[in-house]
Amino acid sequence: MRTAKSSSKFLRLVVLAFFLAGTGHALAGALPETDNGRYALSPAGDGVLRLDTRSGAVSTCSNTGAGWACYAAPDERAAFDVEIGRLQAENEKLKAQLAEREPTVTGKIDEPLPKTDSLKKPEPKVAEGERKIEIPLPSDRDMDRVMAFLEQAWRRLVEMANRMQKDVTGKI
């Protein structure tokens, strides 16, 4: 979004720089008379860029054979303003929907803070009707399976170390 705004501003500054440098004045004499200096003209490609000094609108003008024709350059700012307006309206609508769903609590809560040990994790308060998150712990059967796996892995590791030691001492 910043890039589009800065490119639009850059284009306007370039047009203004050409005008102030004098190239616009030399070309303005060759073109039809402008509206009391309202428009600043500067060369661009096959035609000229026309800057409306009152509104800031930029147009590209070219000689089509039947005369000069000017077409408004796309203004990114107008598109951004439309999008901002749409998003603001959507935001207000969503805020209204949220306000209808849950009443907000205002004011001071009279309940004092509990005095607890700072290292102990406090249990979350659960209001009536709210869901409580529960994490299932592994069963004894699951723990036995894990222990059996670890014991077997340890035995294999020790056996492998013993074999390696025998191989190394036997070769030296």
Detail the topology: elements first, then pairings.
Elements: H1 2-21, H2 23-30, E1 39-44, E2 47-52, E3 58-63, E4 68-72, H3 76-101, H4 140-171
Antiparallel strand pairs: 1-2, 2-3, 3-4
State the gist of this model:
By secondary structure, the chain is an alpha+beta fold. The protein has helices spanning 2-21, 23-30, 76-101, 140-171, and strands spanning 39-44, 47-52, 58-63, 68-72.
Distance N terminus to C terminus? 73 Å
Average per-residue pLDDT, rounded, comes to 75
Strand order of the largest sheet: 1-2-3-4
The helicity comes to 40-55%
| Apparent shape | elongated
Molecular structure report:
The chain has 172 residues and is α+β, with helices and mostly antiparallel strands. It is 50% helix and 13% strand. It is built from four helices and four strands. It has a four-stranded antiparallel β-sheet with strand order 1-2-3-4. β1 and β2 form a beta hairpin. The radius of gyration is 39 Å and the shape is elongated.
What keywords describe this structure?
single chain; 172 residues; alpha+beta; four-stranded antiparallel sheet; 4 helices; elongated
